[in-house]
Amino acid sequence: MIAAVFGRAGLGQLGLGLALPFILVVIWEALGRSGVVPQGILPAPSLVGQAWWDWAFADPGMGLNPYLGTWGETVLFSARRVFTGFACAIAIGVPMGIMIGWNRMVAGAVDPLIQSLRPIPITAWLPFAIAVFGIRDAGAVFLIGLGAFFPIVVNATAGARDVPRNLIRAARMMGANERQLLLRVVLPAALSNVFTGMRLGLGIAWTAVIVAEIVAVKSGLGYVLWDAYYVGRMDVVIADMVSIGIAGFLSDRVLVAVQHRVLHWKQTARA
Amino acid sequence: MTHAVAIRGLRKVFDGRAGAVEALAAIDMTLAEGEFACILGPSGCGKSTLLNVIAGFEAPTEGSATVFGTPVAAPGPERAVVFQEASLFPWLSVWDNVTFGPRMLGRPKAETDALARRFLDLVGLAGFERHLPDQLSGGMKQRVGIARCLILNPRVYLMDEPFGALDAQTRMQMQELLTHVWDEARGTVLFITHDIDEAIFLADTVYVMTARPGRMRSRIVIDLPRPRSIELLTDPRFNALRADILRQIREEATKATAAIEAEERARR
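YS: structure for the whole thing
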């Protein structure tokens, strides 16, 4: 399980990889304590840790501080949006990409639209999303789904297009009809590319959720990030940043674990 | 009597970037039911194109291919194909690869399972049912490729240089295995190869093709007794056949080289 989440590097290598961050944290702490860096701008790691602890575990009824004991639900808000938007992106992007890669007619009809929308950055969609969906979850989910959709659809297209010709011929010769061909041959052959697209898409989904929560909704890690900045709580801002990083990392590792399961036949597939 | 395979005036032209290329020019040939035919020819003579047309993978430019009286329109399980690179589904186990066809065709499971067991046994792969293609050697992959064709119970087997990528030792084993399998399963076979010994060893009839554009140059009946074994390779009759075919192939290869050189000169 540990190996599945952290890759195949041994514990020794893990230790080596932790050395540099550890040194940086020590220097950062020293700078903070010596007073060289103003604590209102860059609070020392120990202060960040304290803020994070309170944010995660303190009793919410302790005072007016909104960052007491709300970390769990904040993370859940963001994670739920990412999950919903990402799931929509998969549900639409994978079948669409497979069809574009498989069928020239579909490619001719749909691909130009996708290719012309794709260069529009996800941030440029913000006003559109708010205008259409208002300050509600739907706007955030739309942005996340849209952001994750493009890499998924593009990679699924490439996967379906690159299915070895003789695999298609073999299936046809064995009597597979078009539907069986798509589900039993094209889809499994394209899955490796599909997972590549999903990993890229998941990264964009976490970017999109932060942007959306800063602007379009009033909860989640993105909302707290910006809110804490406004009230000068840089300790919470940094704790929030690290939380986002951990959430993104863990969700990627889960996806990779699923990938290894699904593509178990592909021994070369590595994280 | 209907022929197992009948090719009439078959011509195939490919439109490439460098202009049209005529791969096959006016092929006429017929295979009798139960005939094991090998097609020999220099590389690039259109042997594989001929097979692809009969398989229904490619449409002829002119002429027709009929199998047991039915014109070929699309690929189908009555014309099983063994590919040069096995072309197994890498995500399926040996068992699932072999039973793929019957499952797609909705054949009864009990019958499929029994046949799969029988044919995996026949090609010497009993015990490897759960292996993935990537865990098999080239020869074993090709055995799976043969078993998944046998289970279809096809009327014609089309084999496109199936042992071409194997080392000499394995190739010889596979040739012996194939004669053994064919003695049991029978059926009409069209076997493409550029290996003269292989053609003589396996075939009832050897067809020698000309250099591109491919035509049938000659049809040679191999009247060596069956069952055949590897000792046949040193038989004087075998050597006489080989000398004759080798001479023909060499002529075609020379022509092919000359044609390529002429093309090069014309381009300059």
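YS: worth flagging: The longest helix of chain A spans residues 178-215.
IM: good catch. Also Chain A has eleven helices and no strands.
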